[in-house]
Design brief:
Elements lengths: L2 H5 L2 E7 H11 L6 H9 L3 E9 L8 H6 L3 E4 L8 H16 L6 E5 L6 H9 L3 E6 L6 H6 L2 E4 H7 L15 H9 L10 H14 L6 H13 L7 H13 L3 E3 L14 E3 L6 H19 L7 H9 L5 H16 L1
Organism: Ardenticatena maritima
InterPro entries: NYN
Pfam families: NYN
């Protein structure tokens, strides 16, 4: 690498669309923010290559956000094989590095797939700085180790400043929406009265299905919840699993094989969770803690927080329960 290249770093950004979107949907539970990935890449230099790989005939609705950021959408028909887009990404990156017609100093790979490990090693041998971006729960250790630097998308979300962090509730028409938006960088949720019921039901379901991975448990629970006498929507069922995950309600077994994703490992409840009520309280406390940290200059209204967690503030007992947790968090 020449001194001129070092002084003026040039970035090639490659996105494995299906991997990163699937990981964000399953483990963060919110729509992906491409601007966050793009901005992270920009910190390394001028982006001269912007490519996203997928069978775009399956994702016509999702193209506009990437096109708005100037990405070249590389279409790879899925009938060529499950890993066709991955292979095309590797071929393009190797070709660009070998030919040198488009000189770049930094290669950024937005994916957690271990299939890109050899590519990372190759690019480093060619003198490139290799940076990975992936979701914490699904990023392969082999790929992480092969990169010079690896950023977790989860952490990039947390670093993104929230516009409402210092606003008062009077500046918003809907205080509950303000709260939901404040924690949306970490976890997606709806202010729905079925949420507590879904969590209590999940505890019972998980107890009946021991030695199961969180991914399997989550998928099976959505089907189970839909079949109940008072059905819970798949959306709420999906949301509460992500809420429990992000409030540290689970313990994961050690990997049974090298590079096993976190959500594919056997899961149990965290210590101290001995019944369904314990699970609900730990989740409530974790979400309120996240809310307080996301809005450090705004006092949290127990009534609005009750609406956020329970879909209503009509029950004074629930409001008092929320206030007790807020007081505990403030004192801790």
């Amino acid at each position: 690498m020449t001194s001129q290249e070092t002084a003026h770093p040039l970035v090639a950004l490659f996105i494995d669309y299906e991997n990163i979107v699937r990981s964000v949907n399953e483990h963060i539970g919110a729509p992906i923010n491409w601007r966050i990935i793009y901005d992270a890449a920009q910190t390394y230099g001028r982006i001269i290559v912007r490519r996203a790989y997928a069978d775009w005939s399956n994702y016509t609705h999702a193209q506009q956000d990437l096109l708005a950021l100037g990405f070249d959408l590389v279409h790879v028909a899925s009938y060529h094989g499950k890993n066709a887009a991955d292979i095309r990404l590797v071929i393009d990156a190797v070709d660009l590095a070998a030919r040198g017609e488009t000189p770049f100093t930094h290669a950024i790979i937005a994916s957690g797939d271990s299939d890109f490990t050899d590519l990372a090693h190759y690019l480093r041998l060619r003198g490139k700085t290799v940076v990975g971006i992936g979701v914490r729960a699904t990023s392969a250790l082999l790929l992480i180790s092969a990169c010079d630097t690896f950023h977790y998308y989860d952490d990039l979300l947390e670093k993104k400043p929230t516009a409402n962090g210092t606003e008062t509730l009077s500046e918003k028409k809907n205080g509950v929406e303000t709260y939901l938006n404040a924690i949306a960088h970490k976890v997606r949720m709806s202010a729905h009265p079925d949420r507590p019921k879904a969590i209590l039901l999940f505890y019972k379901f998980a107890q009946q299905h021991p030695n199961t991975s969180l991914l399997e448990l989550s998928q099976a629970f959505k089907t189970f919840a839909k079949e109940q006498q008072s059905p819970i929507s798949p959306t709420i069922a999906n949301e509460i699993v992500h809420q429990l995950f992000h409030t540290f309600c689970f313990e994961f077994a050690p990997p049974e094989k090298e590079d096993q994703p976190l959500w594919s490992r056997r899961v149990s409840f965290a210590p101290g969770i001995n019944n369904a009520s314990d699970l609900l309280r730990k989740c409530d406390r974790g979400l309120l803690d996240l809310l307080m940290k996301s809005m450090p200059n705004t006092p949290i209204d127990p009534h609005l927080a009750a609406q956020m967690l329970y879909g209503s503030a009509d029950n004074q007992r629930i409001v008092n329960y929320i206030k007790t947790i807020l007081d505990e968090l403030t004192a801790s």
